[in-house]
């Protein structure tokens, strides 16, 4: 896994050139000086996120980036620094800002720079040509950048490099430095404890693995809030016997994006040493085709004792999650949060950038949405509309894994999961795309940890 501290950041560099962060036209003129006319004639318009290179006797002498006074906690405003600045070390100057704002701006600048500097490749990656000297007090930005990079790396990793065993092992390795107690179950142990999850993985030669990790913050007592995280880790999804077309299979290495997201959330919570008890469960499987694979019409048993009729083998993510949610509820968590690349219906409704949020508590959902707005990492709530719940009923089993009607697919998938969550549990479900179809500032094409910053911001408030 790549670390931004070794790729694009520096603790110090005496020869680093300066990037002046400015917020208005007067500040721009002051820092650009005689070069203002030159840079404006070359297209510089002074918009937020825009970078101007200031010429000197030996080339580019310094730079200016504009972040308007209306800036609200958006690291993407600083993303252009990683690709616009000439090679070499650079440091930030916030001379034009009130001291009360500098800490937030420095955090966003480091995070936005790292988000843009990220790139995935198989094999060794060299240091980035542009390096940023870390301002004081930006350790939390580095923490978030590390989690984003890890999540992106896992989602981008080719499926032949990342199967269920590899995903489980990498998750354990990522949490070990924080003192988490992590166990990995496979084989008969998975079949016994998570029969529905095991049935999804039965079609692959690469056996299903379940990650179970527990951690407690240094300031957490025995009755501290228990936060339970669950992630779908389908390392590749053929669709099973309801096989996907070739075009639909091209990106299916990203079908473990929910597991990557929940792992990243756990890492941030642990690095921040939140005063909570934390449980993380990841269902790591491959949905493949063989004589052992589940078939349409099969009826599977679950940990909860419910029987599920398989209407479509490509609706496997909810089968992976249901046993994990059942187990999570057994510990009566104060908050149960799951994430999955669950439905194409959510993408039809909201597009690729907005994860769909479902939840049983209006206040918690509003807190999640507000956290997303604060940090510029938005979600959008869809309803758990119980009028559609009967669509999942079956005559020969307790529930079907797909609805009988071809509508409201994201809602009925969430309602399926809701059947496995105890009514008294405060539960939220995130249906994410986990991918950038094209590159934009701070969001290179490929795997993405959508909602990571929103969830992490939300947890800071939730524990209070």
Automatic annotation (TrEMBL):
Domain of life: Bacteria
One GO molecular-function entry: metalloaminopeptidase activity
Record's protein name: Leucyl aminopeptidase
Pfam family, one: Peptidase_M17
PROSITE patterns: CYTOSOL_AP (PS00631)
Family: Belongs to the peptidase M17 family.
Keyword set, alphabetical order: Aminopeptidase, Hydrolase, Manganese, Protease
This protein's GO CC annotations: cytoplasm
GO BP annotation list: proteolysis
Organism: Neoasaia chiangmaiensis
PANTHER family noted in UniProt: LEUCINE AMINOPEPTIDASE-RELATED, PEPTIDASE B
